[in-house]
Structures are given as C-alpha cells and as structure tokens.
Specification:
The structure holds two protein chains of two kinds. Chain A has no helices and eleven strands. In chain B, a hairpin with a 2-residue loop joins strand 7 and strand 8. Chain B starts with a strand and ends with a strand. The chains are: A mainly beta, B mainly beta.
C-alpha cells in the first residue's frame, strides 16, 4: 500500500464552483501534513500546512481527520488560476521524511 | 535572485554517459534534497543533506552520487546513465530538517536516449 494516496482526477469544474478532494495516508504515526501545488512543468510550491483543528487560507480550506487517516482540501469560488495538480504531503515523526502523493489534477474552465 | 537554482534545466544524453546536475540555494537553509519525479508524477526523495551531512539516502542505485561542498550547494552526479533514469530531478531546501516547507528549484529534465 502506498504511504500517501490521492484520487488523480481530473476534477473539471466551472469558474466559481467549489471543489474538494481527499488524500489518505497509511502511517498512523504521521506527524505533519501539507498541501503543495504544482503547475504543469513547474516545481511544486507549498500551498498550506494542515493543522489538527483545520485551517483556512482565503478560498482554501484544509482539514485533517486522524481517526480515518485522511486530509482534505476544499477550494471555494474556483478561479482559472487554480488549475493545477495538488500534492498531498505527509511527514513521518521519526525521521521527518516527506512522502508525496501523486497529486490530484484540478482544471477550472471558463 | 532565484532562491533555489539548479542547472542545467534540460539534459539530453546517451545511455552509458555520465552527467551532473548542480544546485544552489541562497536562502541560508540548513537542509537540501534531491527528488526524482518520474512520468507517473510521483515525487520520490533520493537524498537529503543537513549542514553538508548526508541524512537520508533512499534506495537509489549507487550510480547516483550526491555531493555537498557546503550547505548552500548540493550536486548530483549520475554515472552510466540508463533509460530508466529519464525523469525530472528537483533540488529543494528547507530551513531545518524537520520543516515540511520545502523550496524547490525549477527542475532538471533529464532524457536518456
């Protein structure tokens, strides 16, 4: 079983829509969680960290469910510029090694 | 100034050749990494250095040899290139080893013919 699994999508949504997707992780000892964004043929960039209590950054909301071992990302009022691949990243507590999911592709259409 | 810069951005070479990719960060970070992103888009850690010391060495063929002359530089040398080495190689840095906030370079796209 992969350490981090994501629905690859693609999620095709119209501008202004809300889109949400999850990521599951296998190691219950995982300590830290992040969402990265990767545009086509570009490098990944940190979008937001995911805190236990859930957190929001503008139109983006991240949630963590430790009992079910998943994190989620919700994008409200989608913009064309939100089109990207969103990578779920999980950090192990013992060696801080980051495990990346293969990404969920979101395409926002006009 | 680019925070994490790696060269070359594109590399096309024949099987069996040896090539190097260089990486430099000007962020003053302690930790640097090499990641490989294959055609299936998985980003896999290859190596991690903390203050010039190797701390993560994943199951990577020993044809791959990292070198960190100082904490701002982490280079990757690959011997006897194989077709399966074709991928995008990303250098990254983080302020400290335990940080999940990585700053990536733009990537080096290696194609082995």
């Amino acid at each position: 079983r992969k350490e981090v699994e994501q629905d690859p999508g693609p999620f095709n949504v119209p501008e202004g829509a809300t889109v949400a997707f999850n990521c599951t992780y296998s190691n219950s000892a995982s300590q830290s969680f992040f969402w990265y964004r990767q545009d086509c043929r570009k490098e990944p960039k940190l979008l937001m960290s995911v805190y236990s209590s859930g957190n929001e950054d503008g139109r983006f909301t991240a949630q963590l469910n430790r009992a079910s071992q998943y994190i989620s990302l919700l994008i409200r009022d989608s913009k064309l510029s939100d089109s990207a691949t969103y990578l779920c990243v999980v950090s192990r507590s013992n060696d801080y090694k980051l495990s990346f999911g293969a990404g969920t592709t979101v395409t926002v259409r006009a | 100034d680019t925070a994490v810069s790696q060269t070359p951005k594109y590399l096309v070479t024949q099987m069996g050749n040896d090539k190097s990719i260089k990486c430099e960060q000007n962020l003053g970070h302690d930790t640097m990494y090499w990641y490989k992103q294959d055609s299936k888009k998985f980003l896999k850690i290859m190596f991690s250095y903390n203050n010039k010391e190797l701390i993560i060495n994943e199951t990577v063929p020993n044809r791959f040899s990292p070198k960190s002359p100082d904490k701002a530089h982490l280079n990757l040398h690959i011997n006897s290139l194989e077709l399966g080495d074709s991928a995008v190689y990303f250098c990254a840095s983080s302020q400290v080893q335990s940080s999940g906030e990585l700053f990536f370079g733009e990537g080096s796209r290696l194609t082995v013919l």
